Amino acid sequence: MTAGSWVRSSPVAAGLAAARARLPAGALELACHAAVPVAVDAGLLHLLRINFFLDPPAVLPFEAEAALLLSPVFREVGEDLYEIDPTLRDALLASLVARFGPERPARVAVLLEQYTDQHPTWHTQPELEHAQRLTALNLVDPARAADWLAANRTSAGGPALTREWFVAMTGRLRPRTSLDDRLAKALTAADAPSLELRLSAVAELGELALLPGTDVRAIALQLERTTRSDPDLRPLAGDVLETLKRLVPPPPRRPLVEESADGLQAVPFPTLYGIDPLTFDPAATWTTPGNLTVPIGTDPDGRPVLLDLREPGHGGTGPHGLVVGAVGSGKSELLRTLIIGLAVTNSPAELNILPVDFRGGATFAGLETLPHLAGLALDLGDDLSLVDRFKDVVQGEVVRRQEPFTERRPHLLVVVDEFDAMLTTDPSLIETFGTICRHGRALGIHLLLAGQRVQRGWLRGLEADLSLRIALRTGSASESQDAIGTPDASALPYGPGHGYLRTRDDAPHRFRAAYVSGPYPPPPPTWDDVFDPYRRPRADTLLDLLVRAMAGQGGPVHQVWLPPLPKELALGALPADGVVIGEVDIPREHRRRPFTIDLSGASGHLAIIGGRRSGKTTALLTVVTALSRTMRPYSVYCIGGGLGSLIDLPVVIDVFEPWDDLVATTIASLRRHPSPYTVLVVDGWNSVRDRYPDLGELLRGRQTVIVAADERWNRFDEADLAEFGTMIELRLDEPETSEISAHDARQLWRDEPGRALTGDGRRRLQIALPISELGGSHEAFVRELAADRRAEPLRRVRLGTFESDGAEFAVDFAADPHLLVFGGLPEDRLRVRQAIERSVSGEIVSPDQAERLAEELRQSTGTRRAGPDLWMLADLWVLADGDRARLSALSSWLVHGRDLRLHLIVFARSSADNPVVSELSSLAVPVVVLPADPTRRATGELLAAGHRHPARKFALDPPIPTADEPAALFGFDPLTFDPEQAWSVPGNMTVPVGTDPDGNPVLLDLRDPGEGGTGPHGVLLDATGSDRTGLLRTIVLGLALTNSPADLNILVVDLDEGSGFAGLESLPHLAGLVLGTGSAPSLIERFEEVVAGEIDRRRQPAAGRLPRLLIVVDKPSRLDATRPSILDTLIDVCRIGPSVGIHLLVNMPTVRARLLGGLSDYLTFRLMAGDLETSDPSAALEEGYLWSATDDSRRTFQVRLLPDLLAARLAGLGGPVHQIWLPPLPEVVALGDLPADGVTIGLVDLPREHRQAPLTLDLSGHVAIVGERGSGTTTALQTVVLALARRGEPCHVYCLGGGLNTIAGLPFVGGVFHRDDDPGLRRLVAFLKRRPAGEGPPVVVVVDNWRRVMRHCPEIRDLLFLGDHVRLVTTCPEWVGYRSDLASMDTLVELSLEDPTTSRFSVDDARRIQLSRPGHGQTDGRGRVQLAAPTREVGGNHHAYIGELADAWSGGWAPRVEPDLRLRIGVYEDDGSEAVLDFAQDPHLIIEGTGAVVEQFLAVIADWADGYMFRGGAADVLDLRDILRSRQPSRTVSAQDLLMRTWWTGAEMWVVTSEVGPDAVGPMEPVLPFLPQAHDLGFHLVLARDSTQDEPSLAARELSDLNTPAVVFTDAAMTLDGRPVRLDVQRS
């Protein structure tokens, strides 16, 4: 058969295709009715139309009658007499039953009988009249019709009918094959091995598809699959499919709520409320105040079921209620319906609603813009601190409503979904619910709790208050009993929305809920929906329409629940009035507000405590940046390595490293000259406080404000801590040490950096990031603030503090544009000059440019004096110190300085020094007098303008480091330094470290002695023991200044978190920064591997020319104390280094030098730094000596340090550097950030290879993941399954474990079985064993807790040996749990272990793996790993990512796990093969015989059957009937579900019974109609009957008609379908 010929080859197909093409829609359905009579005339056809096709949805016009009679479907057989084409009649009759149900033919028959009675013309035609009547009788009572036909065939007194008539009528009355049976056989044959069978099956499917009432979805899917997979049938199947799509309308989409098998249908919400959603106006329904009575559905009689939230005193049944329903029962939809119903009938002024969802938020999705909402509390389970927040919110609302008020407050409905999970997580929530119940009646608060189940005792004390009880379908009778007092809810149908409502002492009332989540109006179906059943064109739901209509209506609603604090805030988005550093959450007051710190009075000092990576240093950056935003005259000094970025802020005087000599000077100056606007910021309070004891006196003086930060509370002694008026606690490494609240501190553990507790212990704080907007940079914000500050009309320059009161000494150049500075030491004049240059904006002009400036002023006088536009012009600044001769050109302009924005600052010896000085004196400008006495350095006097007030003495601010010494040592000016020029000479390993007594540079040369150097390795010894690294930094920075990254790389190792090298992070030479190794032994071991790997890399012949590598180790003695083997690693570096270009420089106190051990033998130079005559740690780092082993020489020198600003000049220059040390694995990795090629589940750290690689599972073998509880094993399995989804290759996954339900929605997941589901586990094992090897995609079985699953189902072990097509990914809390099965595991991953000594890899590494870091572990032979979280991005939503991957999946669906329905009963005696009863192929069985052997055989089957057993009693049969009805597929079940039999879930249903006599099985009749569909419904009838009975029962006849296999017991033997069987099965 070829494409295009299939229609012509079948008269039925040709007739149907012609009818479909020519007839109006619905006419073919009318033809199905006309196929019942033997013949019709125009009157009968008209009667059929007006009886069955006048009401929607099937409405046919009058013209359809004529079109149908004239179509190829009919042929004329007499005057005004037509009959259906005989080739089509049987098909149309079968279609009538399939399309309209088995009752429709009988109704047509009644109509035919009545029409025949009133049609006298037919009375003259006996054969036609009797044929019509007999046809009608056969449809109403087939037995009577058969009896009449038999009696009159042989009766002499019967009608005068011919023998041919009887033969024709006998054939006409025979039973016909149903469409369902034809379809089932055709679908089966379409996959047959025989090409001929497949060809005829495809043609049969095409014919069936043209008939009304056929499952066109299943047919279309089969044809589409055949087109793709069967090349021989592709043309034919494609042609049939195109014809189908052209002539047959697509089937409807599956509705949200299925039709109910018990006849109780869901009434549409608009009908229930009497509204039209498309024109809905809330003003029309908000007219009745306080209308808390709403319909939620209808009862079996069609009457509305009302939910009344009013209290009993007002005629209601509230005010509180409980809703319980299992998964799939429609609980979420009922809550949405209830909320929308209340919103439709109540304005926001009458009712507010607070939805609360513990898990996710899908229940209340779409309600975000509902004007009644007083908040939307979602995902409380993801952050348990939100549960505490909910308690505070409720308590605050109760208190608020108890306060006196004049206006009428709206009712508040609190709807809590998943309350059972909330109580399980935090049982104390029962008190919060109790508070609502106790006070709600009087305060207008209503509580509605909803959950999947409720257990006795959970609602202790609340049972009487929860007067409204709704139970949807429950998981057990006991849950129903606890919810509504009866077990009835456990027997409700499986469709959503079925439930019982009980109010106080009333009996439960049955109802079916309305729903609001379906599309409105429903979009028309398309054929694309058939082939992609999960395609859902975006259409408005009823909920969307109603919420949109109400959005923005009504007045504002008091927000009880505000959104929680964001994880990130930008400081620029907060107000600048006051020192605002973040936002604080005050849930009891239902508000969030900016958090302002008070830096005045007793509250002045601020302490910030936070563990590592808690955002402590960032908080300090935020505080200082906030100070800059206030526009107040703050002067800020910063101590800390991470605060260097603040230097450009105008309020910041300077930033010091903790060891900087200027720190002590600054503290002393601040003590002598305190000011309330001076702020000292200290990062690392404890170490700075120990180094500078005077800091305590400054703290207690309370004049200078101190902002201090440290890691733990015990870093502050009690006396100091008492001085801090404001305290902020970030996340702590040990929450139990919290001084505010250990409970709240534990909840900060998983939060983002910056989340904190305030000192009063009542508030959560989110400290803002020091950026202008989210995504911006801190540096850009600093530049923006600096520009804003300098562009202000007030051009104030701070110079110091007044000695009399500590107030700020600043020059206001807006009021007095010029300044005279008399006298002073050069360094003091430099301080004044630097202060001005750093603080002002505009153009700074040197004195030799005075004449040019004067000419420009002449040319632009009009512009610069143009009033409003003056602010757009830059200020002009002339600073003259020494060369004042050329200033006379500006003399005439000085008087106009304020208008022209011209400023002249002159440093002179006296007022007679120069005419310009005299001119300035005559203008009465301010005068600063600096003493020339060296003993009075950094002081001076201010003479006010015109000398109108007495002089005031002041102290200058500390100086800014100068650039003189770098220029002397290196021959360049740091401000004009050109790195490219300095790097032009390759291999320059010489760096000056100071000057000798003659002023000559002392050089450290890291080259080998053979090349004239002092290297290659050495040690820097600190004589003071203060561990200062200033000289070490100078060596590192000096080498970077003279060598490009292509010639020199640097690896820095610092025990103390890198504070000694802060500011050098931007050096392009860095091959890594190894920080904080002293507190993490694992990092020291990692460092050893990194070094060994680098040595190996440089030894490779193909390595080529590599840059030299300098390894700088700060305080290796501490490393040695933590891990002694580090010394061996450093010795290897020294021993092998010269041959591979590696240099080593270590820094340690002199007193620890003896710990160098064998390393001393390899060190070719020693540098001694510090005051050689004292061991005082506070002594200045001034002297040192350099000793060289080459010539045993020793050179003394004065230490000269390089300024850190040079490092910034190098940033970004040079090519990329090979990173030897990568940052350790992050604590959290998102799966979405990893590559999707392969089953990538995390990152693996490969320090020896200097890289971190994706961790990809090799699923060619089994996988074992071991970790204690809380280590992330279950999450790891979720990640594995999502990684399979990202890979995109077809596979089938089956999951065993209760924690894996979240991934059940993925299309390739064929099932999730609880570990206690013994039958399900056994069924899965049997299913996979039956699965032919190599057929279909590979199978992955995911087992959570192998040991526990094995305890319930030992057969699971068999899956280890099924071959390559089944792979297991398993977890277990400990390795011993696998026992001998561990030998079958190919890939091993080890997370945190309860007993690290049981590690399979490294006990030392196992001890270092923290339980607080889920997913961190080690793997076989590959090192440390971090498994990814199953989210798209860090902090993302797991469920949303699953939905995204499910939508993108194109690899097909996993088959459902069917039970093993094959029972071996013995062997055939004729050939010895096994005799098997296959209930999957033939769902029923007849057993014929009597006696004990039959009883025994029935017992064997009953014991073996896996599922629900019904013994055949009347009650059992009715229950079974209801279950089978609920399993029947509706017309909207997708074809995919039909093919996979996934539209229902549950166990197989068995009836194993026997009959004695024909009438004994009368009770079985209710389920007999389901026998033909038994395979699809999971139904099996095993019937034993007495073969000696003459007449079989109705059940036996039905089974026989279905060709049911029969087992026959006789005295001689047992046979199965006629073949003798030797029975060898016994009852277990």
Automatic annotation (TrEMBL):
Keywords: ATP-binding, Nucleotide-binding. It comes from the Bacteria. SUPFAM superfamilies: P-loop containing nucleoside triphosphate hydrolases (SSF52540). Residues 302-481, 999-1178 form the FtsK domain. Pfam families: FtsK_SpoIIIE (PF01580). ATP binds at residues 325-332, 1022-1029. This is FtsK domain-containing protein.
